[in-house]
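Listing S7. Sequence submitted for prediction.
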Amino acid sequence: MKKEVYLYAPCDGVIKDITFIQDEAFASKALGEGIFIEPSSNIFHAPIGQAKIALIADTKHAYYFEQEDGLQLLMHIGLETVGLNGAPYKLLAQVNDNVTWKSPIVEVDFDLIKNNKCSLATPIVMDVNSTKNWVFKALKLNGKVKQGDKIGVWTYEEKINQQEIIEIVRSKGKYQKVAEQILAAIGGKGNQNSVYNCMTRLRIKIIDQKLVNCDELKKIEVVKGLNQNGDELQVIIGGEVYKIKDEVINILENKTTSNDKVVKTKTPFRKKIMPAVAGIVTPAIPVLLGTGILGGIQAMLVAFGVLQAPGLGETVADLNLWSAIFYVAGKVGLELIGLIFIYNTVKYLGGNPIMGIFVGMVLTSRHLFGTSWVLFNLFGNPVGIQSYEGTVLPMVAAGFVVYYLDKWVQKWMPTAVDIVFRPGLVMLVTVIVTLFTVGPVLKIVEQLLSQFVLILGKLPIGIGVGIFALLWQPLVLTGTHVAVVQAVSLPMTQIPAQPSAMYVAVNIAVFAQIGAVLAVALRTSNQKTKQTAYGSIPGAIFGITEPAIFGVNLPKLWPFLYGCLGAFIGGMFAGIVGAEQITRTGTGILSYLGFGTPLNTAMGLSAAGIALGSALLLTICFYKERPSEITGLKKMNTIVLKNIITENQNVELKNNFETILKLEKANLTDNKVYEILVIKLAKLEQKKQLLVEWTRHCNIWETPYNTFRRFIFLWQLKDKNLTAILMN
């Protein structure tokens, strides 16, 4: 296939060979192939038949033109004119304008350029990134031309033998090929802002209707017809529409496979875990933070007697209106948090998250509450079908089942019935698999853990309470904590009631995670992480640790583990001094209202403080947001040296490298200086983020709350010069 692109004279003048221009970069063709013109008329037009102005330099002397096929052209009016700051140039067109060789682009003051002893020579070259396989031929060298004359031509000839064509066709699936044809016919990927499907039609929201080529669309084999409804183009396909839509989305999101032969490196499983955790957890942070704050406010207002909470045997219907509203707002986010996580899981994997929501609604339905569907008994307790309200990991597991089951069914189900039967089949099977496998397994784990915890309570010198405090937050992650907490709180519900030493560990674990998240907030240089960490603390004080755990500690892993270790230390102290919970009250700080005597309360609070302090110190001392420059350099050098030793037995090369390592060790001071500079740069970046925050809020700081935020901001900034400027 042969292509030709003509170069047109942008103005009157004389055409010359690019190698004779008085600029080494252009003369050496480092910036591309082309010519230059000595202009005699001062209005410059586009030098190409049809293109878009992709870029105009701030000093108005250089212009990039781009064709639809990606070919880019640079026109540079004058040499050494950057110092004139655009003064000689009067723009007649703007960036993103579609232009032709007849379109005036800029008017130039030749006298101003000459008076500043700058050259008027104007090189026009094809961008160096576009020149591969293109050959340029000048048509009127050393001759006078008029604006619009053809002065050169770029030629591109693509030769593909029959075998190569077959391989290209084979490399793309049928639906990917159709998706590419549809996108090309509607005017490209950029001419749409929404793509979805119904039973038989691919529905595309079109930006510019003039770019849509209906004739080309109708030529596509699977297209049965077209229908226009306002700005929505409906491409009638039939049962295959679902698969074509998926391929269109893959192309738009750059998920299609490449034809290039790329060596794929297998990522170790351990390196996949944390990105997956972040991808699933991070979108849930706003819900977790919001629920944490609302739950904390509700608990505090109940403690002060402003609101009511349901008592034994009561429901929300027994409360007054405002008590009911705050109770539901503070509880439902955590009770149905599994819906958020199953949605995020399916979306992260690239499946249909709406199917995940449906499965989540079934699994969290209160219709599943009760013990009427018992499968068997363990330790005298029933194991059967249960609701997954308030659980996280079972819902994440269900999300994986939805995604992989959907992919498997899609492979074998006939296209004609795919969209009708596949979603229902996948959702039903996922629900059944989860209810009859994950649920009973977790129930068995709950019963075993309950027995294990009761055994722990008999261990001496506080070891049992410490271990239980260490395990509490991991139990919360699995959703098995519900049965366990019932076991440790059982003494307090008996008649007569008896104190529970093990229940103390629950709130010790809470305060340990507060210590870990506070340490992250103090150590991090990332403003977003800092805000999330501080925002999670108020709710955590009242026992709602999900924002702190899922929003900060768990995605970073080590703070979560340090929090668990801090809980162990605080739990051992509580066990040694004999701190006990007398009655169940609230959670978090409110739980200490149920410790009875002042001495017992003081011991319980001391244990919580020790747990918080231990987790805080451990995280501050050992958690690193990123490896130090010296540590990273040493690790990289060790890897390189190992490769040299194992894969290259060149002794001289190995000795030379070891000599370099010795020199590096002798210059650790320089590495340390570099690391300090990197840390300073991170702090400057943090201040920049704070300045952005200042700008965003500067127009709404007339309220008392925002005035308070203003002073917090200035305190965070800790820069007297900047603070003085902002205050003025």
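Caption to Listing S7: primary sequence and predicted structure tokens for the chain studied. DSSP finds 25 helices and 20 strands in the chain. The first strand starts at residue 2 and ends at 8.
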